[in-house]
Design brief:
6 strands, globular, signal, 17% strand, 149 residues, Thioredoxin C-1, 6-stranded mixed sheet, Glutaredoxin, alpha/beta, Thioredoxin-like_sf
């Protein structure tokens, strides 16, 4: 009986130590996580959530971020989206298309006072810069607004 207790204790200790070591092996040291972000490291299109919002704001210090407040049920949002993506590709990712679903992220919509969608906001250096583009009245006015980022 004593041998079983000893074997069980050894097994439990191994499992505890193995479990404690696994997270340390899974994540790199903090120093490597604090690397500087370059424009090449930033994605061209991203879905914004409460979890990654601060990261997206950091990117706006490197290149403009267009916050696109949208919803899956919004007809005009769906009409505008292919043009936004096309222009982002044509501009070689000179700006980040940051999509914010207002149904999933109502706090972000409130933070910016968004009352109607689609709504595009130009974010540079962590703050709103320039005018907003609210609604979709065709690709020409959208292209003009994006040219002025």
């Amino acid at each position: 009986m004593r041998q079983y207790r000893l074997a069980f204790a050894a097994l439990a200790a191994t499992m505890l130590l193995g479990g404690a070591a696994a997270p340390a092996l899974a994540s790199p040291p903090a120093a490597s996580q604090a690397t500087a972000t370059t424009a090449a490291d930033i994605p061209n299109v991203v879905d914004v959530t409460a979890a990654n919002y601060q990261q997206v704001m950091q990117w706006s210090h490197t290149k403009p971020v267009v916050l696109d407040f949208t919803a899956s049920w919004c007809y005009w949002c769906k009409k505008q989206d292919p043009y936004l993506r096309q222009y982002n590709t044509a501009d070689n990712g000179a700006w980040v298309l940051a999509k914010v679903d207002v149904d999933r992220n109502p706090d972000l919509a409130r933070r910016y006072g968004v009352r109607g969608i689609p709504a595009l906001l130009n974010i540079q250096n962590g703050t709103e810069a320039g005018s907003r583009h609210v609604g979709f009245d065709g690709p020409a006015s959208l292209r003009t607004w994006l040219n002025n980022l």
